[in-house]
């Protein structure tokens, strides 16, 4: 079942164009979104959340168009990025108290569970957290309202290897629970471990959107890792 569908998405800036971006996400699967900086990953993700106005295209969740159903849809999805600035002098406890008021499905037990998993202290303030701990806090807020779809922009950015390993294990558990996950990353080794599907974007256009094994068979050479395939494709595109 297509839980998320993006069709014909276009967005023009003076120096960049997102061109006819189309793909779908299947329920209970992890999809990795890869591409160089400036390729269009964040623009696509922001478009999917109606954080920027697109020129054309259609986006739907759970069979409902985003336009006209945004409030209902956003109760059922979670979003996290490595670059969110919270009120620096408010405590984590205070930020959670405000945030949970926006979600009818907030799960306090799950929130406390992720708090323990990520090693967060609710009496601390964002200004006191390392970059990696800020990422974990963003993820906690995205995960604690029982989201059915998670859209994550560079979620492992700033995390140490042990924390990344914990997060990838968490992705596996969420997938078993039927959660659909889309995440962009530059750390392609993470995708080799947990991704079911790959979406590859270059210069604002989708170059491939398929199952991971199909992507590697179609674009790889014998013995190449996913990272080696990606780097070679980028080098060939510049040649």
What does this structure look like?
The chain has 239 residues and is α/β, with parallel strands linked by helices. It is built from 9 helices and 10 strands. The chain has 2 domains: 2-76 and 148-238, P-loop containing nucleotide triphosphate hydrolases (Rossmann fold); 83-146, no CATH class. It has helices at residues 41-48, 70-74, 92-100, 108-118, 131-143, 161-176, 188-194, 212-219, 226-238, and strands at residues 2-13, 16-26, 30-34, 56-61, 64-65, 77-81, 149-153, 180-184, 197-202, 205-211. Helix 4 packs antiparallel against helix 5 (131-143). The radius of gyration is 18 Å and the shape is globular. The relative contact order is 0.18. The model has no long low-confidence stretch (mean pLDDT 91).
């Amino acid at each position: 079942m297509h839980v998320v569908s993006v069709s014909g998405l276009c967005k023009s800036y003076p120096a960049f164009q997102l061109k006819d971006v189309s793909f779908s996400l299947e329920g209970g699967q992890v999809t990795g979104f890869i591409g160089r900086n400036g390729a269009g990953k964040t623009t696509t993700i922001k478009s999917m959340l109606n954080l920027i106005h697109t020129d054309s295209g259609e986006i739907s969740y759970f069979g409902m168009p985003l336009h006209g159903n945004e409030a209902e849809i956003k109760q059922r999805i979670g979003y996290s990025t490595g670059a969110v600035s919270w009120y620096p002098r408010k405590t984590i406890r205070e930020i959670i108290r405000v945030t949970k008021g926006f979600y009818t499905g907030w799960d306090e037990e799950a929130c406390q569970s992720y708090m323990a998993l990520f090693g967060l202290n609710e009496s601390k303030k964002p200004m006191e957290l390392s970059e990696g701990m800020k990422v974990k806090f963003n993820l906690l807020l995205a995960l604690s309202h029982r989201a059915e779809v998670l859209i994550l922009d560079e979620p492992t950015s700033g995390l140490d290897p042990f924390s990344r390993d914990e997060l990838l294990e968490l992705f596996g558990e969420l997938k078993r629970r039927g959660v659909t996950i889309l995440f962009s990353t530059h750390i392609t080794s993470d995708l080799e471990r947990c991704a079911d599907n790959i979406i590859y974007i270059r210069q604002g256009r989708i170059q491939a959107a398929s199952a991971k094994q199909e992507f590697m068979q179609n674009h790889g050479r014998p013995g190449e890792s996913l990272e080696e395939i990606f780097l070679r494709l980028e080098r060939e595109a510049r040649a």
